[in-house]
Amino acid sequence: SSSSSSSSSSAIVPIIAGCVGGAVFLLLLATGVFYLTRKAGKSVNPWRTGLSGQLQKVFVTGVPTLKRSEIEAACEDFSNVIGSCPIGKLFKGTLSSGVEIAVASIDTTSAKDWKNNTEIQFRKKIEMLSKINHKNFVNLLGFCEENEPFTRILIFEYAPNGSLFEHLHDKESEYLDWGMRLRIAMGLAYCLDHMHQLNPPVAHTNLVSSSLHLTEDYAVKVADFSFGPSEEETITNAVRDTDVSVFSQEDNVYSFGLLLFEMITGKLPESVNKPDSVDTALVDFLRGEALAKLVDPALESYDEKIENIGEVIKSCVRTDPKERPTMREVTGWLREITGVSPSDATPKLSPLWWAELEVLSAA
């Protein structure tokens, strides 16, 4: 009996040891999983990214609301005016973190002058801009909406090298060589193609050379500061009266063709809203004049494939919108002609985008 009891005890010991060992293993495993999960999910210190706490939310939770006092301080009491835009004045601001911003402020200073219809357009514009998110777009960083004093402001990325219009038509601005112009054209093409592929598609509302801004390394940043029809545009459709997408994708393709022509010739055709009044150089080109004979005199050299680009321009500016190609087709043709890839057209010096990558990689 004593021998039987001893044998039974000996058999139980390995079982107990195995259970204890298994429990310890599971405890260590659970601790490790908890530690790794906690580490992966920890919050990112916004100051590590070089952005303010408010702007850091742009990349995490969507478009933030900023206080007027913060924007006022960033823009030096709104004294740093850098231009005008379809909705009012454009200011340059610098946040405490050193990040530069562009601030578009409406001219309206009284709530009674701000129509409900315009408020709808303003909100739709914010919603639309927040969805674009492209490296060749002047992305929306935030907005301000206060009633005392009455304030409606949009905050964007800042591109420091002025507009394409200035570089093409102001002799005091930096010279753009052939390669730089092709890179700008391709950045614009990739951005428009991206916008048109969104669901629902987004069409640019004011596609002219003054709405194309240039970064430190002369990549294009497409700006869209307007959020409703201008006084010159007659909109008879009651539904369109509250729609920010006044222009269609076909209009954008037409405007892109005009911009290509402007980049190559240095001449300014009339806008898409006045198709019956265009520059005589464009008329000559459409009647068969070689594009090489119309090249901007400031260009020191250009590619031998210029006439291939001319054929793309002709396709874009066809009178019947239904006969125009899509931006996807245009982008494909031009990439084959120029050899400029999306990464080639991307701004290389952009603290906001580097910060976004850091936030996303650390999340």
Automatic annotation (TrEMBL):
SUPFAM superfamilies, per database record: Protein kinase-like (PK-like)
Keyword Membrane appears in the UniProt entry: yes
Locations listed in the record: Endomembrane system
Keyword Cell cycle: no
Main localization of the protein described in the UniProt heading: membrane
Domain of life: Eukaryota
GO MF term set: ATP binding; protein kinase activity
Gene Ontology, cellular component aspect: endomembrane system
Gene3D superfamilies cross-referenced by the UniProt entry: Phosphorylase Kinase, domain 1 (3.30.200.20), Transferase(Phosphotransferase) domain 1 (1.10.510.10)
Topology in the lipid bilayer: Single-pass type I membrane protein
InterPro entries for the chain: Kinase-like_dom_sf (IPR011009), Prot_kinase_dom (IPR000719), Ser-Thr/Tyr_kinase_cat_dom (IPR001245)
Listed transmembrane segments: 12-36
Keyword terms of this UniProt record: Kinase, Membrane, Receptor, Signal, Transferase, Transmembrane, Transmembrane helix
Domain Protein kinase: 76-334
PANTHER family for this protein: PROTEIN KINASE DOMAIN-CONTAINING PROTEIN, PROTEIN MALE DISCOVERER 2
Protein name from the UniProt record: Inactive receptor-like serine/threonine-protein kinase
